[in-house]
Amino acid sequence: MIRSVLNELHKQIIYDLTEKEFLKNIGISEEKMLSYLINNKFLKNLSTFINKESVTCQNVLDMCADILNSRQDEPPEGWMAYAFQYVLNKSFPDAVTIKLNPIYEVPVIIYLQILRSVTKFSQVNGFGSVPKFEFLTDDEIRDLPNKKEYRTFLDVFDKNYVYELMMLDGEVNGYNTLSHVSLVHYVAVHVARQIKRAGLEVNLGLVSGSAAGHDIGKYGCKGLEKRRVAYLHYYYTDQWFLKYNMPGIGLIAANHSTWDLELENLSLESLLLIYADFRVRNKKTDKGEEMHIFSLTDSFEIILKKLDNVDEAKEKRYIRVYSKLKDFEEFLVSKGVNTDLSSLQPKLIKPVDYALIDGYEVVKNFKYKAFEHNIPLMSKLNNEVIFTDMIEAARSETDWKNIRAYLNILEEYSIYLSQKEKLFALSFLYELLVHREGDIRKQAAILMGKIIVHYDLEYTKEIPEDVKIKQTEENAGLSLWDKFLGLFLDPGYKVTDKQKEWIGYSLRVFVDSVINSPKNLSKKEYLEVFLKHLQDDITDETAKFNSLNSLLSIPADLYREDQLIFVLRFSVRFIREPSYSIRLMAAQFLLKAVKQIKVKGQCLEDILDVISEFSPDEGLCMNYLKFKIGECLKAPESLLKKYSSLLSGNWYKTSDIFLKNLKAATPWNVKTISIDYIMENLSQKNELALLQTATHLANLVKVSAMESVRNKAGNSLVELGPMLTIDQRNEIAFELLKGLEIDEMQYAKYIPEYLGRFALLLSPKELDEFITDLKNIYNNSSERSSALVIHTFGIMVQYYPEYKERFGEDNGVIEKRLIRMLGIILGGLANFNSQVKQETFLVIGQYIFGSKVLDLKQKHKIFSLICKKLLTLISEKELTELFFFNNSASFNHIYRFISDYEFFFGKFDIKENKCLAFFPGTFDPFSLSHKGIVKEIRNLGFDVYLAVDEFSWSKKVQPRMIRRQIINMSIADELGVFLFSDDIPVNLANNDDLKVLKSLFPNKDIYIVVGSDVIINATAYKNRPTKNSIHYFNHIVFKRAKDVLTEEAIQKTEKAKSKIKGTLIELQLPLYLEDISSSQIRENIDNNRDISNLIDPMAQNFIYDRNLYIREPLNKTVLKTKPFAIEIIEEISKKVLDQIGYEVLKEKDLYEKIGESLDSKNIKLLIIRDAKNNNMLGFSAFHKISTSDVYPEFKSSYIANYVREKTSGRIIVVDGIFAAPDSAYDNMEQILITETLAHCIKNDFTYALYNNSITGSDSPQLLETLNLQGFFRIHDESTRKTVYGVDMKFPICLTLNMESFLKEPFNKNQYVYRAISRSRKRLQKVMTELYPGSLVLSMDNDMINQILINKICSMNKVPNEPQEPRVLGENMVVPFGNVLKGMVVPNTITKSLHTEKVYSFDTTKFKIMEYPFYSPIENQIRTIESFKKPVILVDDLLHKGYRIKEIDPILKKHNIHVKKIIVGVLSGRGKDLMDIQGREADCAYYIPNLRLWFNENLMYPFLGGDGIWVENENNTNLIPSINLILPFYSPMFIRGASKEAIYNLSMVCLENAKHILLALEKEYKEIFERNLTVKRLGEVLLSPRLPYLGDNIYFDLNKEASGFMDVIIMSLAKLERIIKDGLL
Question: Which of 638, 1229, 1414, 1601 could form a disulfide with 1394 if both were Cys (CB 3.0 to 4.6 A apart)?
Answer without folding.
Answer: 1414
